[in-house]
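Researcher: Sequence recovery benchmark, item below. Answer with residues only.
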């Protein structure tokens, strides 16, 4: 039963961030604005 190995071979899902429309991996925090599932979970101090 090596069926679980199939999930490892798949490429990571790339989605567009609803906040900054930057491509990011699904189920991950957007590296550009720090949003995840409609809420900011990472503080991005890029704004002046
Ligand atoms: Zn973003």
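Model:
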């Amino acid at each position: 039963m090596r069926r679980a190995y199939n999930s490892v071979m798949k490429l990571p899902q790339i989605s567009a961030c609803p906040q900054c429309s930057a491509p990011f991996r699904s189920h991950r925090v957007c590296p550009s604005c720090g949003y995840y599932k409609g809420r900011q979970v990472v503080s991005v101090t890029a704004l002046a």
